[in-house]
Design brief:
Elements lengths: L1 H6 L1 H12 L6 H5 L2 H10 L11 H11 L8 H10 L1
Helix pairs in contact: 2-4, 2-6, 4-6
Length: 84
């Protein structure tokens, strides 16, 4: 991840997401990890300005847009990383 990320930080984040996303069982856990949140935001099609919203607003949008059960499925995680 680190070696690949030197040339492409987005690739590093996607690889990290694929490796650890299954450990996030709630939106709050996902939001607690910057890289996971970054990939989830991108996969959900949310703009960079999303980070300007309050925590509660971000949580509400992510809860609506993400199916957290996909994080328990390797294919779902791969699809999200690919969309990112």
């Amino acid at each position: 991840e680190k070696a690949m990320g030197e040339a492409n930080p987005g690739l590093r984040e996607a690889l990290y997401f694929r490796r650890v996303a299954a450990g996030a069982t709630s939106v709050e856990q996902l939001m607690g990890d910057r890289a996971l949140l970054q990939v989830a935001r991108g996969a959900a099609g949310l703009p960079r300005q999303f980070g300007l919203l309050s925590f509660e607003q971000q949580r509400a949008v992510l809860t609506e847009r993400l199916d957290m059960s996909q994080l328990q499925d390797a294919k779902g995680v791969a699809r999200m990383a690919q969309r990112y």
